[in-house]
Amino acid sequence: MAAEGGGKEMNEIKTQFTTREGVYKLLTHSEYSRPNRVPFNSQGSNPVKVSFVNVNDQSGNGDRICFNVGRELYFYIYKGVRKAADLSKPIDKRIYKGTQPTCHDFNPITATAESVSLLVGFSAGQVQLIDPIKKETSKLFNEERLIDKSRVTCVRWVPGSESLFLVAHSSGSMYLYNVENTCGTTAPHYQLLKQGENYAVHTCKSKSARNPLLRWTVGEGALNEFAFSPDGKFLACASQDGFLRVFGFDAAELHGTMKSYFGGLLCVCWSPDGRYIVAGGEDDLVTVWSFSDCRVIARGHGHKSWVSVVAFDHCTTSVEDGDPPAEFSGSDEEFHEQIHFGAGRDRANSAHSRLSKRNSTDSRPVSVTYRFGSVGQDTQLCLWDLTEDILFPHLPLSRTRTHTNVMSATSPPATGQTTTTSTTTTTTTATATTTTTVSTTNPTNGKDNGSNSSTSGNPANSLPSTLPRSNSLPHSSNPTGGNTPNSHTGNSSSTKGNSIIDSAFIATGVSKFATLSLHDSRKERHEKDHKRNHSMGHISSKSSDKLNQLSSSRTAKAEAAKTLGTTLCPRMEDVPLLEPLVCKKIAHERLTVLIFLEDCLVTACQEGFVCTWARPGKVGLLSSQNNPANSPSGTVV
User: Fold this and answer.
1) How far apart are CA 596 and CA 422, in angstroms?
2) DSSP string covering 458-527, please?
3) What stretch of H or E contains 550?
């Protein structure tokens, strides 16, 4: 494994990484791709996506994998860590003309060894229902594009249903379909069912049953991804306008909202117990949002570009020994059952079965660790630990804690510093307490590219203003075009009082954050003036998106300042800033997939390579590991 440094080492692709559980290893012979293993030319193509399903095969090899690469869709038996992938024998392969697959989802309820139901969304707006085992195409929805003409961004079966599924489009609309209904030969007519803050739900007016059953219009701009809660009762939506909106699905009521630091939100996921939501996007951050408190409880900075996927690791999320807080409404067994990712489905009375995070001083905090991961366009994989120090900042610390000074209010740690302690460390200042869990590090598992860290730094709920938070997040952020304010204003007086400072804070960091223009703020202002007074063609001839960003930059800054500092979007110094436990460059092209399985985790990049990383102690004996016929010519080692 490469050590810290510059030159080739900074761009070296990692084939293993170490966490406190042990070493995760890339299984090069368990790589899935197109049969010729030639890297795919990803220019202008939709992201590679991966879906899994278990068909309960009695042979013990029931996992099936589906992935799209360009115009192609593949369906294989997934052998994981057990055996090498045999790419010469796909169960099904489809090549589409005039459109490309963008997303897909299996129905786990109806899956058997003889039949599976797979939904596939397309760039032209259609949705196809296929059975890749029987090699049948059952139905095509929105065939004439009368319902929506924009690209399908996300498709999911409604949890627990054999026939209902939800489809999101880049138009910002979602549609609820029933596989038994037709879509009709004319454009649907809608009737308002429910309306709220920046969203509306309509029913389809028709004398006979037809699709869609419902149309949701959410926010402004594309609806990039949605995710159902583990119990299927709530729906989290990540939109290009930068807002996370969480709805009660059946009642179509808005439960809560959150605003990105700037730019659009691209991905979202739920914790296994449904208590927390993590979102990522164009601000390069991962943001942790509490479902019960409807507020941001932490942000994580480790990526150098847009975060494309976030996912919780249900196998590593755990509760260690300790008494639960006194205000938890339920038995110890119920809490332990819920946190071990099996009881997320039983979270019907979620508001009544949550841990109290405030004013509980009568008992020790439960030792909780949520593990989640993220991948981004910077080709890096980050793993994060969310511990009780962040979740329960007001609870007393366990007596067994070791107090170690890990951050000074006047002297920040050096940029390349790596902590190699295996204890839980706490720092107490005059105005705040900072607590962080640090795992033992391998000397060869240091930081990569200046941002890789084997330390999980978890500051406390509120840091004093004297703490130099910019040491972890070097530069402030700049809102990009497309952000629109939500009418949630939080404390309006506070917002007004800080708007000038916040606007300046945003403006000064416009050029230095990884995802934004590399021009300095002075040059950007000059370009905007140039745009107003001269032809637009002189500003940039490469992309109309750049023109749109320049034209809306000033408006976006002003709009973002309205929400910055409120509960919708706290300032960086107002919430704990996590550092990644692991941050590794694992691909040459942007990463588009991260899925945690029982014995491995799966990633995929835009070149079309789907990689399997064996968990510690789970490396199987690949029967054809040394078979030259199966040696991958396109594998990065």
Assistant:
1) 25
2) ---SS--TTS-GGGTS-S---PPTT----S--SSHHHHHHHHHHHHHHHHHTTTTSTTS-SS-HHHHHHH
3) helix 544-563
Compute the distance between CA of residue 239 and CA of residue 168 in angstroms, rounded to an integer: 10
Which residues partner with 602 through β-bridges? 595, 612
Q: d(Cα 465, Cα 435) in Å, to the nearest integer? A: 17
Can you point out the beta strands (E) in 345-414?
A: 368-376, 380-387
**Segment 571-625, tens digit of pLDDT:** 999 999 999 999 999 999 999 999 999 999 999 999 999 999 999 998 854 444 4
- Cα–Cα distance, 629 to 126 (Å, whole number): 39
Output helix, strand, coil percentages for the chain, rounded to the nearest 5. 15, 30, 55
**In angstroms, rounded to a whole number, what is the distance separating the alpha carbons of residues 467 and 412?**
8
Whole-angstrom distance, CA of residue 101 vs CA of residue 275: 32
Q: If you search the block for the tokens 């975060």, which residue do you land on?
A: 307
Q: Closest by alpha carbon to 287, among 498, 574, 489, 591? A: 574
Query: What does the radius of gyration of the chain's CA atoms come to, in whole angstroms?
Result: 24
List, as one string, the DSSP characters of 117-137. -EEEEETTS-EEEEETTTTEE
CA dist 226 and 253 (Å) reads: 15
- Structure confidence at residue 102 as a pLDDT band (50, 70, 90): very high
**Most distant pair of Cα atoms in the chain: their distance:** 71
- Preceding peptide of 459 cis, ω within 30°: no
Sign of CA dihedral 350, 573, 423, 456: positive
